[in-house]
Specification:
Length: 322
């Protein structure tokens, strides 16, 4: 952080801590030293949340909080021109569940992109039948900078490729193949590819591709000693609009993903953060295709709790549950 911004931040810190009757100068300076190491936008977020907490705890009045808020704009006057911009930022942080992130946003973005690139290098040329999915893919495919927190990456992979992927990952010194089959219920990932030493996981969803062009999405889980599977039957027409053959690149490394239209359709009516992701790519999708996907999704058939035998899961896990 530039020296001039350090002085601005120090002034802000001592102004608000004085209002809150917090006079532990050692603690204040310790917190400042940590903030100096962050990107200015992350600093603004942390200070906004601290002020918000002071008001909520009754340590300072709302009027006092707002009266001095303009000082914070000086840390990034291009992005935040008025106190209203900062107030809107607090609202956005709340809607994205980012008031108390486990790490600064810039650090999260750096790590998730590092994991993404490193994994794509690992599988490049392996000809896996796979597709990235999830809100982050809209940002990457359209070249939009990451904005919110991303805790993991999601991949749909043909279960026929699962064992081969496991062997490749196990030979890597950067990734680890982790099973959750015996911990999960009918929702969630059977397996994760973990970027070693970094809190970023790549969750695997499984599917079976049929000769007629249709796909069966699968979710395996144990109930007692029985291995069960929930199956979603996706028509050939639905698959043709969602499981596309397009190849993208990030930092010149190729990857495959679900169609932008399918990402948009999955996000547009979801949680606030999902709707935000959808808004990022709205101008890049064909809305006619989106509506076709939406209509075809109504025809998806679900078969729940089907007993399975001879599956790839049993081959990897062993047929007897431990």
């Amino acid at each position: 952080m530039k020296e001039e911004n350090k002085k601005i931040l120090e002034n802000i810190a001592y102004t608000y801590t004085k209002l809150a009757n917090f006079n532990d100068e050692k603690a204040i300076n310790s917190r400042l030293e940590k903030l100096y190491e962050l990107d200015e936008d992350d600093v603004i977020d942390r200070v906004l949340v601290t002020i918000y907490d002071f008001v909520n705890d009754g340590r300072i009045s709302k009027d006092d909080a707002l009266y001095h808020l303009d000082m914070l704009c000086e840390l990034n006057s291009v992005k935040y021109k008025t106190r209203e911009d900062l107030i809107n930022r607090v609202g956005w942080l709340k809607s994205m569940n980012l008031m108390y992130p486990s790490m600064p946003l810039k650090e999260n973005h750096r790590l998730v992109l590092e994991a993404f690139d490193e994994f794509n290098k690992l599988i490049e040329g392996e000809n896996f039948d796979y597709f990235y999915t999830g809100g982050i893919m809209g940002y990457l495919a359209t070249g939009h900078e990451l904005v919110r927190y991303h805790g993991d990456l999601d991949i749909l992979i043909n279960e026929e490729d699962l064992e081969r992927l496991k062997k490749i990952v196990e030979k890597s010194d950067k990734f680890e193949f982790v099973s959750h089959v015996k911990k999960k219920n009918n929702i969630g990932h059977e397996y994760f590819v973990v970027y070693k030493g970094i809190p970023i996981d790549i969750g695997l969803f499984l599917f079976e591709r049929k000769k007629d062009g249709s796909v069966i999405r699968k979710s395996y889980y144990y109930k007692g000693s029985d291995l069960l599977v929930d199956e979603e039957y996706l028509s050939k027409d639905y698959v043709s609009l969602t499981y596309t053959s397009n190849t993208y690149t990030h930092n010149d490394i190729p990857y495959k993903m679900m169609s932008l239209e399918s990402v948009y359709e999955a996000k547009r009516n979801g949680r606030p953060k999902d709707k935000y992701d959808a808004s990022i790519i709205e101008g890049n999708v064909d809305m006619e295709v989106v509506e076709k996907i939406s209509e075809l999704a109504k025809e998806i058939k679900l078969v729940s709790g089907k007993k399975t035998s001879g599956s790839i899961i049993e081959k990897i896990e062993g047929s007897k549950r431990r």
